Amino acid sequence: MSNVNERLEKVIRLQGKRWENEDHWDEINELLITELQDILRTEPQNTSAYINLGAVLCDSGEYKGALAALKIAQQLGSEDKNLYTNLAIVMVDMGKDAEEYHEYLEIAENFIESPLTFKAYFDPQAY
Fold it and tell me: Could you tell me the pLDDT band of residue 27, with boundaries at 50, 70 and 90?
């Protein structure tokens, strides 16, 4: 487990570098997706990996894939604030009704963020 946690910590550091290296955004996203999928092959019920995969896919505009990854984490019983925040972000990005994503934001308030997950990018000014 600690090896997987170390890998997730590296994923978090790498995802932060996307913003510092926007010229390499696509390559870094591919590295992130590959690493997260590899973690899931090793540990197929790792909700943190699903949450992070959902965030990366959302940031890449792959909303259906993001939603699928996040729903798996939800079905596995994750109680991570970032899961529900990311679900709301994906729903906003998909143009869903406010009622659909507000529910996730309300649920998110009941949980704390895991140090092994991150949020998808969200620009409230864009909406």
Answer: very high
